[in-house]
From TrEMBL:
CDD domains named in the record: GGDEF (cd01949)
Catalysed reactions listed for this entry: 2 GTP = 3',3'-c-di-GMP + 2 diphosphate
Top-rank taxon: Bacteria
Record-linked PANTHER family: DIGUANYLATE CYCLASE DGCM-RELATED (PTHR45138:SF9), REGULATORY COMPONENTS OF SENSORY TRANSDUCTION SYSTEM (PTHR45138)
Every Response regulatory domain range: 4-119, 127-245
Protein name per its UniProtKB record: diguanylate cyclase
4-aspartylphosphate, modified sites: 56, 177
Length: 413
């Protein structure tokens, strides 16, 4: 079920724009044109259904931001929309614990709102660790982070920070203030962290005093992703955080695209080689490798069309992902898949492959008006010392035998 966003806005054009934007973000807009209506809607709903509220600062029955007080007191993360903004209003808004504000200036600003809403949903899965010797400073940062739905962790020193990092893989961002850190300073902490976490997997933002500008450069040279000068304005705080978290997410997207097969979404050959070589570096005692090839696949293409061939490959890929979730499996290209088993007894490998072969052969495939069956042949090799290329060569020879023996079978050495 999609999460709801409560919009309180009396201006029809702005309401229409926000409603469209929220729907596009796969969230459900719940609209009220004044505070009384909003209170009525909220009292007859389950509060946890709402992701947040987007509230106009100035409403007919709430001219001075009273609707914001209502949504905040209802524990709804609140984004404020305002027609104009002078310093006084900006301060008034930011004094309240709102997520952010946007001004109704242009459509770009609404795009920012869209980005913000999707972040609020995604942030619930992002852990942020605040490392600062002073409890009050930690609390101030944690409070800001929680407004944006981040999962927060705190450490008063580097030692505890490293300890927390070992236990919680959900942490993707660290904010570290060097000022007063006992024993190990922030630069030393950074160099420890970078031994285990790359910049693309863990962003570190160093906080420094504007009087100590050299520290900012030292942070970056020592492996920090960014720095923030104190005293920071909380808008800048959020912009930096958003930018760094989005940077890591984009890298992750690129990585995933580079590692996976476009048609089926399974890992690709390149990723397979990388994974197997990493496993082999631990000198496994037992290794098995299977090449799986669809039988008479050309006939499926020729009889029912290329789209049907693609559909069949995707269905087979689903079975591959399901049956070999505990091993390293990939689409090698065309109608060929490959699975590597590390330290698995030969009899167990055989059983897993036979189960897969049988379940694939007994499944009925339906595409448009066509209904058909298909099968696979499998070449399986067990080796103690073989490198990946020699294992593939051997599995290929065994696959050839399986094809010649009549297909729909596993042949191993
Ligand atoms: N639809 C579709 N077809 C593909 C794709 N990749 C390769 N093919 C087709 O897969 C077919 C493979 O045919 P062959 O190598 O002759 O093998 P086969 O028909 O499966 O026969 P055997 O392996 O001997 O059982 C070719 O027709 C390729 O065009 C793909 O991504 N999508």
């Amino acid at each position: 079920m999609s999460r709801k966003v409560l919009i309180i806005e009396d201006h029809p054009a702005s309401m229409k724009l926000m409603r469209e934007l929220i729907t596009k973000a796969k969230l459900k807009p719940i609209c009220a044109t004044n505070l009384i209506e909003a209170k009525h809607i909220f009292s007859s709903s389950e509060p946890e259904e709402f992701l947040c509220a987007v509230v106009d600062y100035e409403l007919p029955d709430a001219p001075k931001g009273q609707a914001i007080d209502f949504t905040l007191s209802s524990f709804l993360p609140t984004v404020v929309v305002t027609r104009y903004l002078d310093d006084e209003r900006r301060d008034a808004i930011l004094k309240k614990e709102v997520v952010d504000y946007i001004t109704k200036e242009n459509t770009q600003v609404y795009e920012y709102l869209s980005r913000l809403l999707s972040r609020l949903e995604k942030n619930k899965k992002v852990g942020v660790l605040v490392v600062d010797a002073i409890r009050a400073r930690r609390a101030a940062m944690v409070s800001l982070l929680r407004r944006h739905n981040f999962i927060t962790f705190e450490a008063p020193d580097a030692e505890q920070a490293l300890n927390i990092m070992q236990r919680f893989s959900i942490i993707k961002l660290i904010l570290v203030d060097d000022d007063g850190l006992p024993k190990m300073n922030a630069i030393e902490l950074l160099s420890e962290l970078r031994q285990n976490f790359k910049k693309e997997d863990l962003a570190v933002i160093g906080l420094s005093n504007s009087k100590n500008s050299a520290l900012s450069a030292r942070y970056i040279k020592s492996g920090a992703n960014d720095y923030l000068l104190k005293p920071y304005h909380h808008e800048e705080f959020f912009c930096r955080i958003m930018q760094n978290v989005e940077y890591m997410e984009n890298i992750e997207l690129i990585r995933r695209a580079a590692d996976s097969d476009f048609l089926t979404g399974l890992p690709n050959r390149r990723y397979f080689f990388e994974k197997v070589q990493a496993s082999q570096s631990h000198k496994p005692v037992l290794q098995s490798l299977a090449i799986i090839d669809v039988d008479h696949f050309k006939q499926i293409n020729d009889s029912y069309g290329h789209d049907c061939g693609d559909y069949t490959l995707k269905e087979i890929a689903k079975l591959v992902a399901e049956h070999f979730a505990d091993y390293t499996a990939a689409r090698f290209g065309g109608e060929e898949f490959c699975v590597y088993f590390c330290n698995v007894e030969a009899a167990d490998v055989h059983k897993v492959l036979e189960d897969f072969r049988i379940s694939l052969a007994t499944q009925n495939y339906q595409f448009e008006q066509h209904s058909f069956n298909c099968s696979v042949s499998i070449g399986l090799t067990h080796q103690t010392k073989g490198d990946i290329s020699s294992m593939i060569r051997m599995a290929d020879e065994l696959l050839y035998k399986a094809k010649n023996n009549g297909r729909n079978q596993v042949v191993s050495n």
